[in-house]
Specification:
- The protein is an alpha/beta fold and about 375 residues long.
- It folds into 2 domains: about 170 residues, Rossmann fold, CATH 3.40.50; about 190 residues, NAD(P)-binding Rossmann-like Domain (Rossmann fold).
- The protein is about 30% helix and about 20% strand.
- It has 12 helices and 19 strands.
- The strands form 4 sheets. The chain has an 8-stranded mixed β-sheet.
- Helix 10 links the parallel strand 12 and strand 13.
- The longest helix has 20 residues.
């Protein structure tokens, strides 16, 4: 079997799906590895570091043409899909909700498709969970980038000139990204508060040394995959009103609230921003899916009366080496779990929970009705 990997065309995505510290496992079981020359340049990973391990550098066109399994961190256009080998498999981050038409092309060209965003949140699949691995790094980045923009230090400092108070950080949404944002801000010495619509996460917040803000929104909860359930318009209105007081006293506000497959809820409006003090920072981590903050724009830094609103995308790419290592591990772990060494191919058994959840196209048929 030939495993191929190509470079993302989106200039904001600086990751590679093959990392030198990840590929030994597949090479050791006889899988040939090819990659697009220059694939790791944005993560300071040279072609030579992959070639020395036994991989082969080729052109993008050659990788698409010969790979039996192809790794990608973004959807491919129709022409590239058509150039792939019939019966081959595309595995990657395929942004299915905003690129539904791709699956018709996959089916027509007999390309089997694994969408890694749909890896189920079960114990056996944790090592393949690309959303968690990348969100974890994004949470770290949100704190580091925010800290660069406030005009004070994060930790409390006792000096001969007086005591410097710690910065106050408020994290809205305590999923994987939120938990890492809390942990990072605490390690940097900030005073951290957090809120989530799921009361069950309160203990996790406290275990990191942060204060959990309680806002009674009535009945809330989470899906069987662990995501927060969508709030009603009245609940969102109430949340905005009650959390505005916390925002007004914060130096940094980080919003992480996203709904799987749906636009992100707007949680901070301009009235709340107007109450915040000049020099404070809001980091909208959900900007790529619509944004939690009114007025935030992807890949920009806005200034509203002295309050900076950050809307950076591709956050894990700010730490592209670690992001690439994690992503490469996720993808290779998937291959290792389902590769049959005797048949020298990946076995796509739909009776397996992971395959059933993540496989979108098999043998020319689209398996997910919502994506036909």
């Amino acid at each position: 079997m030939i495993l191929g990997a190509i470079t993302p065309k989106n200039i904001g995505d600086k990751r590679t799906t093959l990392h030198p510290q990840s590929i030994k496992a597949v090479l050791d079981i006889g899988i040939k590895v090819v990659f697009e020359s220059g694939i790791g340049s944005n993560a300071d990973i040279s072609d030579e570091s992959l070639v020395e391990l036994g991989a082969e550098a080729l052109s993008r066109t050659e990788c698409l043409k010969i790979a039996d399994v192809l790794f990608s961190s973004e959807p491919l256009d129709d022409e590239e899909i058509k150039s792939m080998k019939k019966g081959s498999c595309l595995i990657g981050i395929l942004e299915p909700f905003s690129n539904k038409s791709q699956f018709k092309t996959h089916a027509a060209c007999q390309i089997n498709t694994i969408c890694m965003e749909f890896i189920p949140r079960i114990t056996r699949a944790q090592k393949m969970d690309v959303l968690s691995s990348q969100s974890n790094l994004a949470g770290y980045v949100s704190v580091i980038e925010s800290a660069k923009l406030i005009n004070s230090a994060l930790p409390m400092m006792m000096t001969a000139a007086g005591t410097l108070k710690p910065a106050r950080v408020f994290v809205i949404g305590v999923g994987v990204a939120g938990l890492q944002a809390i942990a990072t801000a605490k390690r940097l010495g900030a005073r951290v508060e957090a809120f989530d619509t799921r009361p069950v996460v309160e203990e996790q917040v406290k275990s990191l040394g942060a204060k959990f803000i309680k806002i009674d929104l009535g009945e809330t909860g989470q899906t069987d995959q662990g995501y927060a359930k969508e709030l009603t318009s009245e609940q969102i209105k109430k949340q905005k009103k009650l959390q505005a007081d916390v925002c007004s006293n914060s130096d940094i506000v980080i919003t992480t609230a996203q709904l799987f497959g749906k636009p992100a809820p707007q949680l901070i409006d301009k009235k709340t921003i107007e109450r915040m003090k000049p020099g404070s920072v809001i980091f909208d981590m959900a900007v790529e899916s619509g944004g939690n903050v009114e007025g935030s724009v992807a890949d920009t830094l806005q200034n509203f009366n002295g309050v900076k609103v950050i809307g950076y995308s591709h956050l894990s790419s700010f730490v592209s080496d670690h992001a690439s290592f994690a992503l490469s591990n996720n993808l290779i772990n998937f291959v290792m779990d389902f590769y049959n060494e005797d048949k020298k191919e990946i076995i796509f058994d739909l009776d397996d929970e992971i395959i059933n959840s993540s496989m979108f196209v098999k043998n020319g048929k689209i398996l997910k009705k919502d994506f036909c």
